């Protein structure tokens, strides 16, 4: 089954690609206004997540943020890198270094979520 490229998907993807940091659903909603409803945004983000277009970050504030995947053509790619959340401006960004997590034999990683919080260079 082929997934349709809807106007909502394209609008959300354009915002995520243009963003210099990860975006939450409420940030996307504020930028989209009435063009796309809240439920559609969640549905599109989950679809992008399943398709490997974005990865999800759960911030230390409990919110979910989404960032476009770069060099992630392999759907088995693990996003084992830390993220930085500025406690002043709220920006969340991917940090460049991958982290190797050695698990005991027969353990499998399904998710990695590492967030460092502090002040960004602009704050």
Automatic annotation (TrEMBL):
Which superkingdom, per the lineage? Bacteria
Cell cycle listed as a keyword: no
One annotated GO molecular function is:
transcription cis-regulatory region binding
Q: Where along this sequence does the record place binding of Zn(2+)?
A: 86, 89
User: Key word Metal-binding present in the record?
Assistant: yes
What binding details are noted for the cofactor?
Answer: Binds 1 zinc ion per subunit.
A Gene Ontology biological process noted in the UniProt record is:
negative regulation of DNA-templated transcription
Q: Which UniProt keywords apply?
A: Metal-binding, Zinc
Cofactor dependency: Zn(2+)
The protein's matches in InterPro entries, at most eight in alphabetical order, are given as: FUR, WH-like_DNA-bd_sf, WH_DNA-bd_sf
Q: What is this protein called?
A: Transcriptional regulator
Q: Which organism is it from?
A: Pontibacter korlensis
């Amino acid at each position: 089954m082929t997934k349709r490229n809807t106007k909502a998907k394209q609008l959300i993807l354009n915002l995520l690609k243009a963003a210099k940091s990860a975006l939450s659903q409420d940030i996307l909603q504020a930028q989209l206004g009435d063009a796309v409803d809240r439920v559609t945004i969640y549905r599109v983000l989950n679809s992008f997540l399943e398709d490997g277009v974005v990865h999800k970050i759960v911030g230390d504030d409990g919110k979910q943020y989404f960032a476009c995947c770069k060099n992630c053509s392999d759907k088995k790619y693990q996003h084992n890198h830390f993220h930085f959340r500025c406690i002043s401006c709220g920006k969340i960004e991917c940090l460049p270094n991958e982290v190797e997590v050695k698990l005991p034999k027969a353990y499998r990683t399904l998710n990695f979520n590492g967030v460092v919080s502090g002040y960004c260079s602009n704050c």
